[in-house]
Amino acid sequence: MHHRVLSSNPETNTQTSGMMFNPGPPAVIPSVRTEKAFLLGLSHRTLQDTAQVTKRTVPVSIPLSFITLSLLLSMQAVAQVNTEKLRSSDSGRGLAVSVSAATGLVRGNSEYFSFTASGRSDLMLDESYHFLVASYDMRESGEGKISNKGFAHLRTMWNVRKNLILEGFTQLQYDQFILLKQRTLAGSGVRLGIPLAGDSSGGDALQIFVGVGAMYEHELYGADERDVVFHRLRSTNYLSLIYSLDTRVTLSTVAYAQPLFDEPANHRFVLEASVMVRLTTFLALHVDVAWNYNSHPVGNIRRYDLELSNGVSLTIR
Q: CB neighbours of 200 closer than 8 A, spacing ≥ 6?
């Protein structure tokens, strides 16, 4: 592990500005969304927001400029990004691009303004799957900003054989409220799918996915009027379980462990769980809980974050 302290100049410091999806069971490479979808503003975090989402599916031969454009489109992220949520689970070949934006405004007894934006691009080929997602989230009350964060994540996956996938990824992230000015990482690993029990329709009622990999990360923190820089090599590992009670109810959970290779006591741990109940073909309820732990935070930041959210999703096919 290497780190160094830099002098801080508020006039010259810059912040790099930079999603969410249903965790799919990619025992075979996950595929591309081909429908229009948007989230109704019924959760406690988006009650005042109005969202517009547009999505289209285009041929694979679309120029790369469309993929580059999605890098500039920015959805909400927690301090530690759960990349399992970024995987698409719909079938289909080709390139799909989606963008969304939401704003919220409250005036009177309470003062509140929010703006979130996100975009993603999915490219599904016969033996590989690639996606790029980006998000930005800013929330401000009468006392000042209460959220200012964003990230972009690019991942490529290749089928080696059934249930075995090679992955490569890179990510750019910032979060003002954990003092993170910039986090850049790149890594690779393997993903193994372990289907266990089948349901009455012949599908996999329970699926388990195990990922093992390594990544190099560069982090820039602004703490106590000075900048702290880290250059580190981390192990990144996860265990993901998806269980379908029936065609309507799905339970999922994922746990990440990311210790430093040269200092295992310096680690990050993420645990997320969700329940989705599909009411109709188009309407579903969901409850999500996420716990993030960092053994060595910078400055006076707490070691953990706990987030609980619930809402309703509407899918238009």
A: none
Mean pLDDT lowest among 57-61, 85-89, 187-191: 57-61
Q: In which band, very low, low, confident or very high, does the pLDDT at 87 lie, cut at 50, 70 and 90?
A: low
- Distance between CA atoms of residues 139 and 110, nearest Å: 13
* 3-state SS string for the chain: CEEEEEECCCCCCCCCCCCCCCCCCCCCCCCCCCCEEEECCCCCCCCCEEEEEEEEEECCCCCCHHHHHHHCCCCCCCCCCCHHHHCCCCCCCEEEEEEEEEEEEECCCCCEEEEEEEEEEEEECCCEEEEEEEEEEEEEECCEEEEEEEEEEEEEEEEEECCEEEEEEEEEEEEHHHCEEEEEEEEEEEEEEEECCECCCCCECEEEEEEEEEEEEEEEEEECCEEEEEEEEEEEEEEEEEEECCCCEEEEEEEEEEEECCCCCCEEEEEEEEEEEECCCCEEEEEEEEEEEECCCCCCCCCEEEEEEEEEEEEEC
* Residues contacting residue 133 through CB under 8 Å, at least 6 positions apart: 19, 75, 86, 118, 119, 120, 121, 152, 153
Can you tell me the distance from the alpha carbon of 176 to that of 178, in angstroms, rounded to the nearest whole number?
6
In terms of DSSP bridges, do strands 94-106 and 112-124 run parallel, antiparallel, or are they unpaired?
antiparallel
CA distance 300 to 231: 21
Cα angle for residues 15, 21, 23 (degrees, 5° grid): 125
Distance of CA 116 to the CA centre of its chain: 14
- Residue showing tokens 């301090």: 79
User: Rg (Cα) of the chain, in Å, rounded?
Assistant: 20
Higher pLDDT, 18 or 249: 249
Distance CA(86)–CA(152), nearest Å, equals 11
pTM to 2 decimal places: 0.67
Instruction: Count CA atoms closer than 13 A to 235's CA, side-chain side.
Output: 14
Alpha-carbon distance of 99 to 312, in angstroms, equals 19
